[in-house]
Design goal:
Blueprint: H1 27-44, E1 58-63, H2 69-80, E2 84-89, H3 101-110, E3 115-120, H4 125-130, E4 137-142, H5 148-162, E5 169-173, H6 180-191, E6 195-199, E7 214-217, H7 220-224, E8 229-232, H8 248-255, H9 259-262, E9 270-272, H10 285-288, H11 296-314, H12 316-319
Parallel strand pairs: 1-2, 1-3, 3-4, 5-6, 5-8, 6-7, 8-9
The chain binds phosphoric acid mono(formamide)ester.
Phosphoric acid mono(formamide)ester is lined by residues 67-70, 141, 150, 274-276.
């Protein structure tokens, strides 16, 4: 467990109603969420995985974009905590009949949800919903903006493998421009004291990086040198307007993580990917499936624990848990 950031005296309650992003969270708040998640990693490895903290509560997962990992892990997390979990898929909802996002939010609120988890293709849509409902809202990814539980599960994975995140050199490579995962991870890892390197072809580097405490590279080999962690990102063609790379083959030649290229990083460097992967484009199968280096399935496992912790913590006030009222 990391020890470089102490929890301030008396601050044993997470001081936010929602989890909309990592930006603005204090180091102790992130570490508090990670510490709480640890107990659920242990529970999830037992044959009986049930806790009853959310008994009688209703959690609505409203997904306006496709998902495998995030939707299923929020559903599993809610159920393991004892909540009644309902999934709303946009394709089968009245959004298809022209209902506005705000009307949908008001409708979910009228059903007395105790927590709403939202994934949406537009940056800021989750904030809009949080402003209209009475219960905690958890951002499951909004446009290019943030994917906070992904960054938390990545941080938990790194912390469990490497110990203190502070001082680690972490390289994030790929389609940074369109990636909410990159943005949330940059906020999370720099807040925890990591040295973050960001690498992409110039057209996939957002200008906003100038305002973040990261080192920017266009040469992947240079970025890899001395890295303790290498986090690869998918090319998000669904968010691209036009062509950003000459071809997937050329992209792989310059920015694909191969076994040979990985040798430039630290000898014990971890390989991470949030999924879904495009094998043979940003990452080769022999790297992704290397059980000694790749944490990709472990990240998925940590995702359930992190989401259990977030649902528990954000509903403590409404459940009247002592110290959280
Ligand atoms: N990492 C991630 O968000 O994956 P899904 O799109 O499958 O949820």
């Amino acid at each position: 467990m990391a020890t470089s950031h102490q929890f301030p005296a008396g601050s044993d309650a997470f001081p936010h109603n929602h989890l909309l992003g990592i930006a603005g969270l204090q180091p102790w708040e992130i570490l508090f969420l990670l510490k709480e998640a640890e107990q659920w990693v242990d529970l999830n490895r037992k044959s009986s995985k049930h806790a009853n903290r959310l008994d009688g509560l209703t959690v609505i997962n409203a997904f306006f974009e496709n998902s495998t990992r995030t939707l299923l892990s929020f559903e599993i997390a809610g159920k393991r905590m004892g909540a009644d979990v309902v999934n709303m898929h946009a394709a089968q909802s009245s959004i298809k009949k022209g209902e506005t996002l705000i009307d949908t939010a008001v409708t979910l609120n009228a059903m007395k949800a105790d927590a709403i988890v939202i994934r949406h293709g537009s940056s800021g849509a989750v904030q809009l919903i949080a402003d209209k409902v009475d219960c905690p809202v958890l951002n499951a990814g909004d446009g290019r903006h943030e994917h906070p539980t992904q960054a938390l599960l990545d941080a938990l994975t790194i912390q469990r493998r490497k110990g203190d995140i502070s001082g680690l050199t972490i390289t994030i490579c790929g389609d940074v421009m369109h990636s909410r995962v990159a943005r949330s991870n940059i906020y999370c890892l720099t807040t925890l004291g990591a040295k973050v390197r960001v690498c992409a072809p110039a057209p996939l580097l957002p200008v906003a990086l100038d305002r973040m405490s990261v080192e920017v590279f266009t040469d992947f080999d240079r970025a890899l040198a001395g890295s303790d962690v290498v986090m690869m990102l998918r090319l998000q063609s669904e968010r691209m307007n036009g062509d950003f790379i000459p071809s997937p083959r050329e992209y792989h030649h310059l920015y694909g993580l191969t076994k040979e290229r990985l040798q430039l990083a630290d000898a014990d460097a971890l390989v991470m990917h949030p999924g879904p992967m495009n094998r043979g484009v940003e990452i080769d199968s022999d790297v992704a499936d290397d059980v000694d280096r790749s944490t990709i399935t472990e990240q998925v496992e940590m995702g359930v624990a992190v989401r259990m912790a977030c649902l528990d913590i954000l509903t403590r006030r409404s459940r009247g848990v002592e110290g959280w009222a």
